């Protein structure tokens, strides 16, 4: 099994991004529209945080009350993305190996890592990306 492959081979580069001044309502719409669980938060091209769908669920009634969007809007207006996101996320380089990334993800409580080249966000790698890669290796 090839585990010394650079993470740039499996990372997502077609990124959905949020800015710190975006609303949590916008964030939820992006999560649902793109069927994703993690969105990097940027200032320009520099990553300043990560917002997960779980972060949104912690402050909303999204799963319990899908019919009452007004309640969610009120709750979302009480917080900013900066208050809810994980700040100073752990990042990896495009040259980091899949093994290195898998080790980080297996030891931490998060499931996505921003991929940064010279402070510029260039991708994101998730536990799902790692699992897909491993499954592909099993087929070969």
UniProtKB/TrEMBL annotation:
SMART domains: CBS (SM00116). Residues 11-69, 85-140 form the CBS domain. Keywords: CBS domain. Gene3D superfamilies: CBS-domain. This is Membrane protein. The keyword Calcium does not apply. The keyword Lipid metabolism does not apply. It comes from Neptunitalea lumnitzerae. InterPro entries: CBS_dom (IPR000644), CBS_dom_sf (IPR046342), Diverse_CBS-Domain (IPR051257).
């Amino acid at each position: 099994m090839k585990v010394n492959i650079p993470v740039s081979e499996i990372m997502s580069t077609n990124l959905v991004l949020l800015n710190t001044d975006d609303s949590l309502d916008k964030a939820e719409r992006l999560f649902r529209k793109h069927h994703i669980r993690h969105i990097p938060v940027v200032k320009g091209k520099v990553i300043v945080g990560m917002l997960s769908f779980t972060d949104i669920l912690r402050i909303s009634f999204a799963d319990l009350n899908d019919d009452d969007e007004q309640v969610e809007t009120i709750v979302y207006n009480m917080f900013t993305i900066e208050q809810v996101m994980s700040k100073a996320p752990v990042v990896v380089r495009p040259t980091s190996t899949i093994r290195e990334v898998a080790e980080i993800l297996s030891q931490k409580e998060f499931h996505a890592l921003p991929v940064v080249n010279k402070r510029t966000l260039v991708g994101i790698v998730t536990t799902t990306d790692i699992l897909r890669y491993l499954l592909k290796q099993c087929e070969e």
